[in-house]
């Protein structure tokens, strides 16, 4: 599925027009009156006691003064492993990740949740100014030891796409207990990156493709209580059959590894992302937040 059906485009454009006229329909949960404001203009899970919060879903409270509008596009940042591995640009150092998160904070960017991204592309819902979406793939141990506390510190919601069969493996992987702690923190959205990370279109039968997607969703439900609707295709690889299986499995939105931003009306099952590696300077990073055709690595 490489082409966007026209009917989808029209429906999304119409919905966007309606949302623009009635932006008050978007409910923003602001800080309670008198509540102390932190230096950052947002925080995740400030109301963790709220029993309405679902596990494995990031909730974000923003300062009520943050302006909302419908942006021209949103970068969905794609990270993987964080650590000190030499000569592998896909692995980012913690120091570099911190520099980039400092950049987002100091320049007024507002990381958004998967649900906010979905409402934006499908309904043209307004987003906080300078929106950006932060995603990490695979489920390495450093997502728990480094990324989880770091994002809490910055008050940034983020998304982890998890390979469910890798959980508990001895080398550099998380345990379900660690994931449970993260899921119940309401600071991170935990989503589907399949059971075993195959190139989905290479699998011989629809049954095998279905197993990878459906059983990963079942694992998220069984271990973490998550009703998951988001997926990242391993290697960005998919085909029409995979998209149909996603739809049947309750997946509402899926991201690829194709480069570029997403927009109102983007087809929800082939969303582009923005690669960020250790070799991306801050100047390049800032360009990637704002342009569809940014400078290649
Ligand atoms: Zn992956």
Defining key terms:
single chain; about 300 residues; alpha/beta; TIM Barrel; 8-stranded parallel beta sheet; two-stranded antiparallel sheet; 8 helices; about 15% strand; disordered N terminus; binds zinc ion
Verbal overview:
It is a single chain. The strands form three sheets. Strands 4, 5, 7, 8, 9, 10, 11 and 12 form an eight-stranded parallel β-sheet that branches. Strands 1-2 form a two-stranded antiparallel sheet. A two-stranded antiparallel sheet has the order 3-6. It starts with 5 loop residues before the first helix and ends in a 9-residue tail after the last helix. The radius of gyration is 18 Å and the shape is globular. It contains eight helices and twelve strands. Helix 1 (6-21) crosses helix 3. Residues 1-39 have low confidence and may be disordered. The chain has helices at residues 6-21, 94-106, 114-123, 141-154, 176-183, 206-224, 240-248, 282-288; strands spanning 42-44, 60-62, 68-69, 76-79, 110-111, 127-128, 131-138, 158-162, 188-192, 230-232, 253-259, 271-275. By secondary structure, it is of the alpha/beta class. The chain has one domain (48-288): Alpha-Beta Barrel (TIM Barrel), CATH 3.20.20. Helix content is 32%, strand content 16%. Zinc ion is lined by residues 137-138, 193, 197, 234.
Query: How does CATH name the architecture?
Result: Alpha-Beta Barrel
**Contiguous runs where pLDDT drops below 50 for at least 5 residues:** 1-39
| Basic shape | globular
Order of helices and strands: HEEEEHEHEEHEHEHEHEEH
The helical percent reads: 25-40%
Count of helical regions: 8
Briefly note the structural class of the backbone: alpha/beta
CATH class category: Alpha Beta
N-end to C-end Cα span: 27 Å
The molecules bound to the chains, other than polymers, are: zinc ion
Strand content: 15-25%
Mean pLDDT: 88
The CATH homologous superfamily name equals Glycoside hydrolase/deacetylase
CATH topology value: TIM Barrel
Oligomeric nature of the chains: single chain
User: What number of domains?
Assistant: 1
What is the total tally of β strands?
A: 12
Largest β-sheet summary: 8 strands, parallel
- Gyration radius (Cα, Å) is 18 Å
């Amino acid at each position: 599925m490489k082409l966007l059906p026209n009917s989808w485009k029209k429906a999304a454009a119409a919905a966007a027009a309606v949302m623009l006229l009635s932006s008050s329909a978007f409910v923003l949960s602001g800080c309670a009156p008198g509540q102390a404001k932190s230096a950052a203009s947002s925080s995740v899970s400030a109301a963790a006691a709220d029993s309405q919060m679902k596990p494995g879903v990031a909730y974000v409270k923003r300062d009520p003064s943050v302006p909302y509008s419908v942006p021209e596009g949103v970068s969905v940042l794609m990270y993987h492993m964080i650590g000190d591995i030499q000569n592998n640009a896909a692995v980012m150092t913690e120091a570099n990740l911190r520099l980039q998160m400092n950049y987002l904070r100091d320049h007024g960017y507002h990381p958004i949740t998967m649900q906010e991204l979905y409402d934006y592309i499908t309904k043209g819902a307004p987003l906080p100014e300078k929106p950006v979406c932060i995603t990490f793939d695979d489920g390495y141990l450093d997502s728990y030891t480094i990324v989880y506390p770091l994002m809490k510190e910055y008050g940034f919601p983020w998304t982890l796409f998890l390979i469910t069969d890798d959980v508990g493996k001895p080398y550099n992987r998380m345990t379900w207990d660690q994931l449970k702690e993260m899921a119940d923190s309401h600071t991170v959205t935990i989503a589907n990156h399949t059971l075993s990370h195959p190139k989905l279109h290479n699998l011989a039968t629809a049954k095998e493709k279905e197993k990878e997607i459906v059983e990963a969703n079942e694992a998220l439900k069984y271990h973490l209580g998550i009703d998951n609707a988001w997926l990242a295709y391993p290697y960005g690889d998919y085909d029409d059959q995979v998209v149909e299986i996603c739809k049947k499995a309750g997946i509402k939105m899926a991201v690829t590894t194709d480069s570029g931003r997403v927009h109102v009306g983007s087809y929800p099952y082939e969303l582009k992302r923005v690669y960020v590696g250790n070799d991306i300077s801050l100047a390049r990073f800032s360009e990637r937040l704002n342009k569809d055709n940014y400078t290649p690595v």
